[in-house]
Each structure stands twice: as C-alpha cells, then as structure tokens.
Write the structure tokens for this entry.
Amino acid sequence: MSSIREIKQAVEQLTPADFSAFRQWFDEYDAGVWDRRFEQDIAKGRLDELADEAVRDLKEGRCSNL
C-alpha cells in the first residue's frame, strides 16, 4: 500500500471499530509529528522573535488574563 489512493480505499473499507482505532492511532501519530516539528523549530530559533515579542507585550502591560 503505497499510494494515497490505495490508503483512501483501505480506510473506506474499515469496519466502524477499526476506523475508530485507526483515527485514534492517526491522531496520536499526527500529534507526534507536529510536536517533533515544533521542537525542531524551537531548536533552530524560528520562534525566538515571537517569544521576544510576547515577553515585551507582557512587560509593557499589553496582555490580559484568560
């Protein structure tokens, strides 16, 4: 199973229970991919400017409690 089309067809043939298990697995997998990318962005300094801006806003009183 190597193409998107084949994957789509396989997913469409899952039983409701297997589809539920697949969704749970995929959600966890996708979250892990996102977490790793976020960590890489942090390590490469891609979020430094945003973090600096947030700290400045906090110090200058431009933040509100949630």
